[in-house]
Write a structure and sequence with these properties.
The complex is a heterodimer. By secondary structure, chain A is an all-alpha fold. Chain A is built from four helices and no strands. The interface between A and B is medium-sized, with 22 and 24 residues.
């Protein structure tokens, strides 16, 4: 069960049970927050997400890869929640992004992993998972 | 496959664009179903759809979730393409009415296990031919929908000039088969090499889309696409024009087999795009020579104009011997 602290300004939000899987990786059965985790969700009016594993650094690197691949203007907002198809990525862009991720992080993403990379956050989570496996 | 150019235009009176325009009498020109060996291709050029009133009316055709998907797209151009893609699918299918009119808004879609969209209908909606198969592809500048009766179909579209951010051969080594890497490496002209990369990509995409599996369901390195010229038996980079050689697919799991129940066509569309079409072959009747795929191409602005297209706007590069 995920626990987190709401910032005072948003403490009035009712906390709904998490229905969205916390990390969208198919082979992860249980999710645990690292002890002393610094990353807390930003609560929004409609829904919330918990970044349980991906470091901000990873998310930022993925954002950079996406920006470059899609040649986005400097003022385009790209963050963890950004869905790459909404940013204009077609299937070829997606595969190029996966390839750039492989090179940047020195990992291998199987083709079926490519379909989990629908958002920047998903990509970052998958990267961390693969790095963890590699390090193990 | 050069036909004499015939233009069929059905013009809609502009004042008919009111909220209920989708159900106005004969708004969409109905079309005969494709025959069993035939695929109908319909395409829209987003830049030619300028009227904001028309686009507003198009939005009415979409389901709530489709509308939401459109609005999530970043920027007007992406939103317009997403909108026109759904409009093209819905209006195209609605044209193939067998008993009275089909309201494009009434069509329901579902996704298969890999995410391929399919038609879903209940018994009330038997007006629409139930065995229609379709597939769609779009870039920011062209939207394509392919329709068949009964045969699985996959279509993929890509701008001819599409450049990779990565090196072509590095990309091919990572995702394509050794045979395809060898083929691309043998092309010394970088422009031709880039074009053949795009052709291979679209053909491979069209195959996995026809199968309903997509890139994730069937990795591209599991099957090889080969171009075969009419004279030679081996694949080699064929010339750009007038070579209507065969395109075949071979599974790498069983190198000696062909996936002979799939046929391909590669077209140049609107002068700017490669379009790959993959279609399930009709079962050859014993003794009959299997006939090649027949394609009918139409350009459309739904509710405004339909145009039957032949070369040079729909130019078959290879695959229809």
């Amino acid at each position: 069960m995920a626990t987190f602290t709401a910032t005072p300004a948003r403490a009035s939000f009712a906390l709904k049970p998490v229905q969205v899987p916390v990390c969208k990786i198919s082979n992860v059965r249980s999710v645990s927050l690292p002890v002393g985790s610094r990353s807390f969700p930003s609560l929004k009016a409609r829904r919330f997400q918990v970044s349980c594993a991906a470091k901000k650094e990873t998310v930022d690197k993925v954002c950079e890869i996406v920006r470059k691949q899609l040649a986005l203007p400097a003022d385009a907002v790209v963050n963890g929640e950004s869905r790459i198809s909404d940013l204009g990525a077609d299937s070829l862009d997606t595969v190029e992004i996966v390839m750039a991720i492989e090179e940047t992080f020195d990992i291998t993403v199987e083709e079926d992993g490519a379909q989990t990379i629908s958002s920047v956050q998903n990509a970052a989570d998958l990267i961390e998972e693969l790095l963890k496996k590699k390090g193990a | 496959m050069i036909l004499s150019r015939r233009v069929v235009i059905s013009a809609m009176n502009a004042v008919c664009f009111k909220r209920s325009f989708a159900t106005a009498s004969s708004p969409l020109v109905p079309v005969q179903l494709p025959s069993r060996k035939e695929a109908h291709l319909w395409y829209v050029v987003p830049d030619e759809v300028k009227s904001s009133a028309l686009l507003h009316n198009y939005l009415d055709i979409l389901s709530p979730s489709e509308k939401e998907n459109v609005f999530h797209k970043r920027g007007e151009q992406l939103q317009k393409a997403a909108l026109l893609a759904r409009v093209l699918v819905r209006t195209t299918i609605a044209r193939y009415q067998i008993n009275g009119q089909v309201d494009p808004r009434s069509l329901k879609f579902k996704k298969n296990i890999h995410g391929k969209p399919e038609l879903e209908w209940n018994d009330d909606q038997c007006q629409c031919a139930p065995s229609l198969q379709f597939n769609i592809s779009h870039t920011s500048s062209l939207i394509l929908c392919g329709v068949t009766v009964d045969s699985l179909i996959g279509v993929d579209l890509e701008e001819k000039q599409r450049k990779l951010k990565n090196n072509i051969l590095a990309f091919a080594r990572r995702y394509f088969t050794p045979h395809e890497v060898k083929f691309l490496s043998s092309i010394s002209d970088p422009v031709v090499q880039q074009q053949y990369f795009v052709k291979l990509w679209t053909l491979k995409e069209s195959y996995v889309k026809a199968l309903g599996k997509g890139f994730s369901g069937l990795p591209f390195r599991m099957f090889t696409i080969q171009f075969r010229t009419a004279e030679k038996g081996n694949s080699c980079p064929s010339g750009e024009t007038n070579n209507k050689g065969e395109i075949i697919v071979k599974s790498l799991e069983d190198v000696n087999s062909f996936s002979s129940n799939w046929q391909f066509a590669l077209l140049e569309l609107a002068g700017s795009h490669y379009a790959a079409i993959c279609m399930e072959k009709d079962e050859a009747v014993e003794g009959e020579v299997p006939t090649p795929m027949k394609l009918t191409v139409r350009k459309t602005i739904p509710y405004v104009r339909d145009e039957l297209i032949s070369g040079p706007d729909a130019f078959v590069i290879s695959g229809l011997t």
